[in-house]
Amino acid sequence: MKGGIQKVGVAGCGLMGSGIAEISAKAGMDVVVREIDASAVEAGRGRIESSLARAVKKEKITAEERDTILSKIRFVTAVEELADRDIVIEAIIEDLEIKNELFGKLDDLCGPETIFATNTSSLTVTDMAAAVDRSDRVVGLHFFNPVPVMKLVEVVRTIATSDEAFERTFEFARALGKEPITAKDNSGFVVNLLLVPYMLDAIRQLERGVASVEDIDAGMKLGCGHPMGPFTLCDFVGNDTTYRIAEIMYDEYREERYAPPPLLKRMVAMGRYGRKTGIGFYDYSGDQPVPVAV
Ligand code: 3HC
Fold it and tell me: Measuring from each residue's beta carbon to the nearest atom of ligand 1, which residues come in under 6 Å?
């Protein structure tokens, strides 16, 4: 394969997949994004459209540029449509079996040169590379939420990743306008390895009654200059997501710092996922978020 990556496939058009598809199209690439059914496609398209509408409103792009970006994205439900891509980035559910089922199908469909990238936040890339015939062309490509805003991408290589596949992916991340860093294939890579225990510790502080949700958030915002306090961040990332990541990291390292605190488990059981369900550590039903008693 010569030249840079031009034909991008994105599997999954949720929060992360829609952002990845949007920035790829914005960088001038030809994008095919696959979701499992028509309603998931419509939800994904809606996410991209509202993100672009926001950019037009803020005068970051013109209405014409928005239309050009949208015209570069083809929404599909058939996995076969990803066959001719230079790279396929999966951003589906954080479940190894489901990811490997998808990669297995893609392994049969795609040409031998296609790079398989995973946006996993906590699983190990090696567990996906080991399940396909092209282990040398499997990489991690971990984006951050909101994808159009956050500059970082972690590019992850396993012991089997070829230099060529790694370098092409690294260049691809740069072509998307991101600032990539290289990470070893360990659960949590660089950022989540530090960030997840931090969020879990904030929940433990709350369990111990150290301070209120608002005060812990204000402490980290005002004292450390973080853009969001840990509970606002938990609600932003999704408590269900953080819980799942913590379970995977705890399973990997068997260290207490990664163990999900009971309160997080209770929040998830009650559907208090955060912004996406309208309630988490804060209630988002009014004009301003209001802390919820826990
Ligand atoms: N899409 C596109 N642009 C967006 C956006 C979105 N969803 N959300 C915000 N923006 C843009 C706004 O347009 C604005 O741009 P401008 O300054 O050029 O006008 C800028 O971002 C700031 O937005 P706002 O003024 O609306 O709001 P804030 O100043 O509060 O910023 C934030 C919002 C960028 C989300 C900021 O609060 C932030 O950086 N928070 C921390 C986010 C973070 O830590 N993300 C990582 C989570 S961990 C992760 O993703 C890993 C995973 O594996 C769990």
Answer: 51, 54, 58, 121, 144-146, 148-150, 192, 195, 227-228, 233, 237
pLDDT in tens, 47-90: 999 999 999 999 999 999 999 999 999 999 999 999 999 999 99
Probe residue for ligand 1, chosen from 54, 56, 149 as the CB with the greatest number of ligand atoms within 8 Å? 149
Q: Is the entire prediction scored with pTM above 0.90?
A: yes
Instruction: Check residue 261 and report its DSSP letter.
Output: P
CA pair distance 281, 270, nearest whole angstrom: 12
Domain span(s) for CATH 1.10.1040.10 in the chain: 193-291
Contact 187, 249 (CB under 8 A): yes
pLDDT, tens digit (0-9, with 9 covering 90-100), for 103-133: 999 999 999 999 999 999 999 999 999 999 9
State the closest ligand 1 atom to the C-alpha of 142, by its place in the atom list counted from 1: 53
Which residues are CB-contacts of 93 (< 8 A; sequence separation ≥ 6)? 12, 99
Indicate the CATH number of 193-291 among 3.30.565.10, 3.40.980.10, 3.40.50.150, 1.10.1040.10: 1.10.1040.10
